[in-house]
Write a structure and sequence with these properties.
Elements: H1 2-30, E1 33-41, E2 49-57, E3 63-69, E4 73-84, E5 87-92, E6 96-98, E7 103-106, E8 111-118, E9 127-134, E10 139-147, H2 149-152
Parallel strand pairs: 1-10
Antiparallel strand pairs: 1-2, 2-7, 2-8, 3-6, 3-9, 4-5, 4-8, 9-10
The structure holds copper (II) ion.
Residues 79, 90, 112, 114 line the site of copper (II) ion.
């Protein structure tokens, strides 16, 4: 009896595994863009947070990031930090091109996703979701890990 149960369990494991592999292969074929190292630098006192990620383009055509939204924040905008002499300022970015077979980093000192007006309490250790919309029509619902300023360094 116990042998039968074991056999059944390992069979369903094998089935789940093979379905998982098929699903991953289909996803890779459908999406040009994948996102890695997605995280948010959280700040206390409801200060705006900043989202960072690396966008990877597996296709042979450039793809633009054209819009960002989130159910966790009222406002999610792509900004670029530019330095003019001694000071720095942020400018709005309409689109960010991910080169064919290349990648672009949204990283501290360069680009960031400005996240304002959190719709609920967000704390380090949480995961928030951003919807990244691209020029080829795909939208990636992407989990971002929330880090404290100390964890971010
Ligand atoms: Cu900003």
């Amino acid at each position: 009896m116990s042998i039968q149960i074991k056999t059944f369990a390992s069979l369903s494991c094998a089935l789940a595994l093979s379905f998982g592999i098929v699903g991953a292969a289909q996803a890779a074929g459908a999406n040009a863009i994948s996102v890695k190292d997605a995280w948010v630098r959280w700040l206390p006192n409801n200060l705006p947070a900043a989202g960072y990620a690396t966008l990877v383009n597996a296709s042979d055509k450039p793809v633009d990031l054209v819009d960002i939204s989130s159910n966790d924040y009222g406002d999610a905008m792509l900004h670029q930090t530019v330095s003019n002499g001694s000071s720095q300022k942020m400018v709005m970015v309409d689109k960010l091109t991910v080169p064919a077979h290349g990648q672009v980093a949204i990283s501290p000192g360069g680009y960031h996703v400005m996240l304002e007006d959190a719709k609920h309490k967000v704390a380090p250790g949480d995961t928030v979701h951003l919807q990244l919309k691209f020029s080829d029509g795909e939208t990636l619902d992407t989990p971002f890990v929330v880090k404290s300023p100390a964890q971010a360094n």
